[in-house]
Amino acid sequence: MARKRNRRAPGEGAVYERPERGTWVAALIVGFDERGQPLRRTKTTRTKGEAQAWLLEQQAALHGGAQLGDNSTFQELVDAWLEAGETLRGWKSSTTSSYKWVLQRATPHLGTLRARDIEPSTIQRLLLTLARGGASPGLVRRVRLHVGMVLRDAAKKGLVPRDPVAVIDPPKVDAPAIQRWSEDEIGKVVRHCLSVDDQAARYTLVALGTGLRTEELLGLAWSSVDLTGKAITVERVAVEVEGRVELRAGGKTDAASRVVPIDDITMGALARQREHVERLKAIRADVNARQAALGRESPHWEDLDAVFPTSTGTIWGRSSLRGQFNALQKAAGVNQIKLYATRSTHGSLLADAGVNLHALAERLGHTDPRFTAKVYLRGSNSTHRAVADRIGAILGSSLVAEGTSFRVPGEPTDASSGGEPS
Fold first, then answer.
1. What's the CA gap between 215 and 220, in Å, rounded?
2. Can you name the residues that pair with 17 across neighbouring β-strands?
3. How far apart are CA 151 and CA 157, in angstroms?
4. Are 182 and 246 in contact (CB under 8 A)?
5. Which residues contact 262 (CB under 8 A, 6 or more apart)?
6. Burial (0-12, 13-18, 19+ Cβ within 10 Å), 87
7. Residues 231-254: tens digit of each pLDDT
8. Mean pLDDT confidence for 268-285
9. Least-confidence region, from 154-158, 264-268, 299-303, 410-414
10. Between the chain's N and C termini, which has fewer beta carbons within 10 Å?
């Protein structure tokens, strides 16, 4: 009678050589199918040591609860991760779109791979391919970060043995220089805006006077503007999601919802902007009436209560705003800065004026004043000159106290001016 063969258990494995190919194979039983047949994972390596190391790693992962028999592809993991984030974790649609956009840089290379087979070398090749294809270091860094988020989540659920991204160093990215206008340029911009006084000019004055984010300004409603009390309440933002603009309550952070007192120049710009919006409404109503008399339809006024609307009341698109903002800078004869750099210019102006850092952080809607100081504040030329003059005064006073005289280079000596040498 034939001896019954013992059934091998999950976690058992072996390493064997294929001399005809010059390779070694590690094999591991990870479970059984519906017919009771063993499910195996194998790995071909060049050396016996590599095969043994892989087998030990997989056995440890299996004993730790990893589902090594799972055949999910990376694309399937991405889809599940995005759905869980939006449905269970309450991600905003803009957050999901941002994650999806970055991960779409990786899925053409990783999407069809079984997630459990993705190794650090796979991630390294992906990042190199993106970099050689012209992707910026910043984008490559974001791809690494987001792919790692997906695979770490899978590792927690036991779908992959470990996060292969963790051992890959992120590419070095230099911190972007914070843009801002100088004091002279601010004067030129303000004078130009007051002389032109169109919507782009009034937007720029309000941006400089409040330090609001671009999405806060575009989402600003008249119901949040108190011209009598000279204050703006930040209550909603306008964000672009997959080519469309969405109005959303709140802001970028918990501290973003805030009251921002305004100055007379900003208040004047807003008062003139309100008159402009009323004219736009009247023009739209007249156009609609004339078109209706001809039996034609035309876009009606969208009552979104926007402070900076289009000619039909919809939210002003960033691309249109950016084009007009750039034209304004050119006409004013100043260096070109990005839309959001009016915010860092505002913060720098107040810092130069000696405004309390905590008060400035609250005005900008930051939860941590250290972030305000690190990212937005840059001393102006006049500030640095004042510092140099201050240290010069300290050094000079110490010499005067000791009875020592000193001469500024370039000043004439007593001998050269005809006097007696000291």
1. 8
2. 24
3. 10
4. no
5. 209, 210, 230, 231, 232, 270
6. exposed
7. 999 999 998 877 788 888 877 667
8. 96
9. 410-414
10. N
